[in-house]
Automatic annotation (TrEMBL):
It holds the Pfam family Cupin_8. InterPro entries: Cupin_8, JmjC_dom. Its cofactor is Fe(2+). This is JmjC domain-containing protein. Residues 268-403 form the JmjC domain. It comes from the Eukaryota. Its main location: nucleus. Keywords: Iron, Metal-binding, Nucleus, Oxidoreductase. The keyword Metal-binding applies. It comes from Plutella xylostella (Diamondback moth). The keyword Nucleus applies. It is found in: Nucleus.
Amino acid sequence: MSTASEIYTELLELKTRIGLEEISELDIACKSTIHRFLSNDSALSNIPIIKIDAVLDYTYERINIGNWKDVKPYLRKTMTIASYIKLIACIKSIEPSSHLDVLHLQKLFKIIDHGLLFGCPIEKEPQLLQKCATILNKHNCEQLTDMKLSSSAQNQDDIQNIDSSCHQGNEIIVECPSMEYFYKEHILTQKPVVLTNCIQHWPALTKWTDQSYLIKLAGLRTVPVELGSKYTDAEWTQKLMTLGDFIKQHIFTTEGPTGYLAQYQLFDHISELKNDICEPEYCCFSDTNDPVDINAWFGPKGTVSPLHHDPKKNLLAQVVGEKRIYLFSPSDSEFLYPHDDELLNNTARVDPRCPDLELYPKYKDAKAQICILKPGQMLYIPPKWWHFVESLSISFSVSFWWE
Ligand SMILES: O=C(O)CCC(=O)C(=O)O
Ligand SMILES: [Fe+2]
């Protein structure tokens, strides 16, 4: 295990990758704090943490005023750079010959994750904060193995123990189709399909069934979690917590509100996890050069994504556990009673598990395709197809959205 001073040295090497051009619009006082750090090795000891905190507080406030999409990139870049400086300053304040303990690591990962959640990549080193996290992880993985889980055997069983009487519905399953077949039969015709045998090689398929692997790799990392049974409920909310706390409080207990790490770009945040998955080749059938949006969906048994549709093509890969999915064609929209509200008009009012035919009589004309997605399978959901997703066990899925 490395000493604080060795880690400090390694982290400091990344400093040369930071340029000031990208934050030239920044307020002069903040800029001078950052500039002092960048221009002189020894200057760091002269910058009290309180000054860096002031830059972080100022930037955080500016970022959180108004609409997220209107935030100026220089503010989010400042958040990234100031988080890096704070990280360096914090390590510098630890006795150089000592080893980092869990409390140190907790504090340091909080700084990195705050920067990743509110900042954005800087040009010359888009992976700046991810690299810092990798450096800390590499040197200190042993520390994290001690974080014991209070998992009961029963909950572990939850991963595998599915009611085998669930019928397979009327979906089609195709074994690893050729690129040509998939393009002609599914992309062009916009027909959903369950694909088997396409992701068998993913390390995630074996690694992620072991929660202690996720805890060891990323237990101290902060992630956003949705709380509440579904996003259409009034009491639904979101919270930031560490992945370790999420696993302990929401994966291995059934008390309290359902927690769902849903629709989150976890692989941009924790880059080590990306090595466990692989972007499917079918995503190359694209009309743009935009990167594929990869999202994680990790939760206990009983998470529900209400009936909704998305604008992009989607391959939903099931890694751990099973999900029941109801699909409806876009031509069934009028039978599903979409909300009128602009924010929710891609979401239907009907719950296909127990449709209220008095309230929603036209639902009787809708044609559901139901499938149970199993580990190692991938469901292709064409753009605008309605889908309702319920987890039947502890579940980890990865979605690939592309245009
Ligand atoms: O798995 C889920 O809960 C929902 C997935 C979904 O809606 C999607 O991938 O677009
Ligand atoms: Fe969706």
